[in-house]
Amino acid sequence: MKKWFLGGASFILSGSLLQQHCYAQLSLGAQLRTRTELRNGQGTPQPEGATPALFTSQRTRLTAGFSAYRIKLGLTVQDTRVWGQDASTINRTTTPDNNGFMLHEAWAEILLTDTIWKNKSLSLKVGRQELVYDDSRLLGNLDWLQQGRRHDAAVLKYESTAWMIHTGVAFNQNKENAAGTIYNPTPPGNYTANTNGGNAYKSLEFVYASRKLNKGNLSFLFFADQFSKYHTDSVDHLPVKTWEATTNNRMTTGLFYTQQFNRMAYTASAYYQFGTNANAQTVNGRLLSGAFQYSVSKAFSAGAGVDYTNADFDPLYGTPHKFWGNMDYFYVASGFGNKGLQDYYIKTKLKPGTRWALTGDVHEFYSDSEITGMSRKFGTEADVTATYALTKIIGFEAGYSHFWSTASLASPTVKNVKNASANSNWAYVMIIIRPEFLIK
């Protein structure tokens, strides 16, 4: 939309400057994503004879964006639920523990430099927002999960043709306190506070710097998150955590590198984690990864890679589903005994046309720590995924995964599943409808 103000001092402005200050753009969008899943050991092996789970979940999002001279606004509201979790005649949306309606994003980004600056900018983004950097291994929006991930934060951004430097902070509180800053990190309802099932952070700070290279990119991350300390009291002979104002401080730093050379694409990353985690344990964590993908033709590519994490490393607030197998056995809510992980994998992709794509991956998983009296091998996973774009706004996706697990994976110090099945599988079908509108 364009608006012209014809009063007072506006007459002294040139036509071009007036148009620059008064030009605005509104965007509206929606997303309806339904996913039907057959789970027979997804996340962790099931005992022999257990009945598979079958259900349909749905994510409904409404988005709005507004941009004008030196400001952008973003808003996303979403509802996530399983079909049938609410009675058809109930007079409220859902039970409190399963409430899936929420504000996913609500932010404003203010351009601190004038628009006359070319190829560089300094801006401040404040509010509820997604933090997505590099390959989303440590900081991502976890889009596969229906409810996704977001942060209440402020991020100062400097960006130029070659550089991107972001620094961000967040400070969480449960309510408007009259005094003190004690934070209870236990999430309400039936949701975990983060991917790995732990408590929410009380605060975080980070610096991210990225430098564009010739057909590549090199980035540096320093990330610190603080967790409320606690002591345990006995209430009615049961242990109860009492949260304190002081915090445990954990820090993560490292590099991410990606490069394209003719038909070969390389990625590598190395991170070190230190300090004290949410359970007051000293951390000495390491993550190393490297991979390549070779384009055999325009339609087919294949590659291989390896990931290594030791027992102390926690992959922060990333997207595990993207890296450690589609069945989410590792670094998701179902733990695996803090053993660390070695993942050796092969990935292939076939894209015969603009609408179709087919991927096939195989992972070999090993524990990085000894498992008393047992092999370190956790098992083998095979993932196949197909996507089809019916139109620009309508897409279909389907996948099948199979996990051949070992006795080590089900052992008491790892997944702790008695009489576990050695064969697990998971299948899904997903429909994604995503219309977008632009109003000028």
From TrEMBL:
It comes from the Bacteria. InterPro entries: Alginate_export_dom. Residues 25-405 form the Alginate export domain. This is Alginate export protein. It comes from Chitinophaga niastensis. The lineage of its organism: Bacteria, Pseudomonadati, Bacteroidota, Chitinophagia, Chitinophagales.
